[in-house]
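Annotated sample (chain length 261).
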Amino acid sequence: MYRSHSTKEVLASLALLVGLTVTLQAAFIPGFAAPIATSVQGQVAKGKAELAKGNVDNAIQILTNASKILGETPGSCDCHYNLGKALVQKSKRTKSNSHMALAKKELRTAIRVGRGNVISKQANAYMMANLPAGMLSPKMGEGTELIAARLGLSSRDRGIGGAPKPRVFEFYADWCEPCKLLKPVMEKLKEQYGDQIDVTTINVDDKNNAEMLEQYDVAPIPTVIFLNSDGQVVGYSIGFSGEKSVQKEMKKLLPEVSNKT
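Output written by the structure step:
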């Protein structure tokens, strides 16, 4: 049965079609990409201006269309960052968790594609300051042991002899200042517990780790997650607030560690 489409739906479809056409032309027609890139960056600037004026819905529409054209390239960092900011503001106005979840995705993309540039650092700081604690947290509890098994990260899967150990994953980047502050704390953790636990550092800028970040839903950095011997995530720490925050989460693994001493 034929269904009539609203003007908004038609315009959205046209915008997507134009974006796909532009992307293909930029890929196959020499000299085409440069003016298009300039045009898209102009749209990003327009979206940022709308956001600055408080026109959040307009900003989201403009920046969403621009992000479809730019994709996840280094030049898209500013677009994803400002789209994330606009979605956060939309979520706060409407009390919508779905908009906040989309904001998290856009800000995480900005961090990843920016690879330590000024905007990616701003995106990381903005995420920590503006997303609710529950939205910042990685996946926790029942079912997370399947992630470790699926990714081949559990002690059993790695073929380590004897009983499996609790594990600690530290997600970091070389450019991240809080990560640098956390580094001596993690080194102390290794020295303190020795071979009773496995401590692994995960560089978020390494493309090989992208699936792991996605599976555990890691957002800002540094993020440290604590897995029991079954591979289940039982605790986490985000940002740097001193050694106590890490040791507090480590206590959740201490019964297992002490039983092996």
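Annotation: The chain has two domains: 7-135, 145-258.
Annotation: The two ends are 70 Å apart (CA to CA).
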